[in-house]
Amino acid sequence: MVQIIKTEEAAALIKDNDTLWIGGSGGGHAVPEKLIEGLEGRFIKTGFPRSLTCAHAVGIGDWKEAGMNRLAHSGLIKRSICGTLTNSPRIADMALSGEIESYTFPQGVLSQLTREMAGGRPGLITTTGLHTFIDPRLQGGQQGSKRGPDLVEVLEIDNKEYLRYKPIKIDVAFIRATTADEKGNLTMEHEAVFGENLSIATAARRTGGIVIAQVERLTKNGTLQGKQVKVPGILVDYIVIDKEPWQTYVTKFDPAYAGYIHKLDNEIAVLPLDSRKIIARRAAMELFKDAVVNLGFGVANGISLIAAEEGFYNDLTLTVEQGLVGGIPALGNDAGAATNYEAMIDQPYQFDFYDSGGLDLAFLSFAEVDRHGNVNVSRFGNKIVGPGGFINITQNAKKVFFLGTLTAGKSDVRIEEGNMVIHQDGSIKKFIQDVEQITWSGGYALERQQTAKYITERAVFDLTPDGIMLKEIAPGVDIQRDVLDKIDFPVIVPPEVPLMDARIFNANLMNLKDELKGKEAR
Questions:
Q1: Please, where are the H alpha helices in 331-441?
Q2: Among the options 101, 116, 310, 321, which is catalytic?
Q3: For a Cys staple, 392 with which of 108, 165, 242, 264, CB 3.0–4.6 Å?
Q4: Quick check: 294 and 354 in contact, CB under 8 A?
């Protein structure tokens, strides 16, 4: 029978050198925060446990103090394995300084790896990550100056290259659910995502590890509907109760995130007419009826608001890699959740769909682009980010669009009378000779005949076998001064470069809904 214990008792179950796998996603979605807080409290009080390996598929944290940031104490962690460190800058700083070993693997890979580990298979074998910094012929996914063991290797099967991500023995698993019965059966009715809790719990128990679940409430045996149970009690060892969890780090509880209600269309925010909206509008023009789409974090996420504002988000299927299908992806630090969705599935299966080529279109933000068309989002300057779901999504979508401003840094860009006017440009170039880290390989994409486009607020580019080609410019923009002089490598410029659609730069609706119906996949 499962044991109900206190937070400090749960923390005391973790031993030196244990591997701790933590469920949940991003900005607090189904994150067992009380368990993480308890572990930090024990370490502060006693100095133990020490030298943990901490693994989680998605970045976990509030960009400040919560989540994995709580565990950024010298001696507590020796190794971090995760999809991204953007949510946990304190852990990223430890990786940069060489205090810990750090691996940032694709989010989908880590999610699917838990399922392979649950079944006792020899890791995950996939093409995801080839020719990126994950490839062991490059960096093997390792960040920071302190090197750890190789956790990924290249295999050849039937004359085709694959990567094998090695299995990781889990000593302790932290997961979160909403309700537990006396046998430890868990339901997740209030959570914004399901994640991979079942796989984590099964993987831990298979190798003799323990599973500790944080829940909001307890109920008697026989009162939970069996079809609603996400993790059966046979996989759960201990329960810790947190009666007032936040659904995410910034949202106490939104019934739409839990799927209880659908929000009215007039409740959905509208973007102001600025650079972000310009980029999102131009990207939205690539959509077509019934397209299956992924929207990445950052500027790309604004496309969902364009689709809602223009009244056609129900005419296509927007998806979120955490397992949401349909509806409107959440913005800001709640990204990873969604409202008005049609289905919520476990994260490994969402990435199975992505890896199978199920996405018609993928729109993701970029940090750097180079002369080969390579894109970097995972590391630049003194900042470790990691790929998140970027690599799974970009390598396997039929068409991929990279979105961002042409430059970075303090700027003053305005829309005046239908023209883009650059009063002050950003001082940092984002189109450079060579990216610091390859998160998406332009050469590998060309080899696989994948279509790629780069959309900025002032110009649109295509990836071609001969290089990056300028395809459109914004009205009011000077090609040489505002575009070519801001790029560190030669760009192919055709004799005539058409202007971006004038409607993009007007405050009125673009009336894209009618055009959407007439489009087909192309």
A1: 347-355, 390-396
A2: 321
A3: 108
A4: yes
**Burial 135-144, CB ≥16 within 10 A → b, else e:** bbebbbbbbb
H/E element holding 126? strand 124-126
Q: What is the pLDDT of residue 144?
A: 83
Q: How far apart are CA 293 and CA 451, in angstroms?
A: 15
Rounded average pLDDT over 210-236: 97
Q: Phi, psi at residue 416, to the nearest 5°?
A: -130, 115
For residue 75, give every residue at least 6 positions away whose Cβ sits within 8 Å of its Cβ, in sequence order, or none: 43, 47, 50, 51
β-strand partners of 497: none
pLDDT above 90 for 491: yes
Identify the pLDDT of residue 520.
63
**CA nearest to 327, candidates 391, 395, 256:** 256
Catalytic residue flag (residue 321): yes
Rounded Cα distance, 346 and 183, in Å = 23
Using alpha carbons, select from 331, 341, 263 the residue that is nearest to residue 302.
Answer: 331
- Contacts made by residues 76-79, CB under 8 angstroms, sequence distance 24+: 76/40, 76/43, 76/49, 76/50, 76/52, 77/51, 77/52, 77/53, 78/17, 78/51, 78/52, 78/53, 79/52, 79/53, 79/54, 79/103, 79/148
Beta strands 399-403 and 451-455, pairing class = parallel
Q: How far apart are CA 105 and CA 129, in angstroms?
A: 8
Mean pLDDT of all residues in 86-97: 96
Residues 242-301: tens digit of each pLDDT: 999 999 999 999 999 999 999 888 778 889 999 999 999 999 999 999 999 999 888 898
Cβ–Cβ < 8 Å for 388, 84? yes
Report the C-alpha dihedral over residues 148, 105, 238, 66, rounded to 10 degrees. Answer: 90
Instruction: Burial-class residue 212 by CB neighbours within 10 Å (0-12, 13-18, 19+).
Output: buried
* Average pLDDT of the chain to the nearest whole number: 95
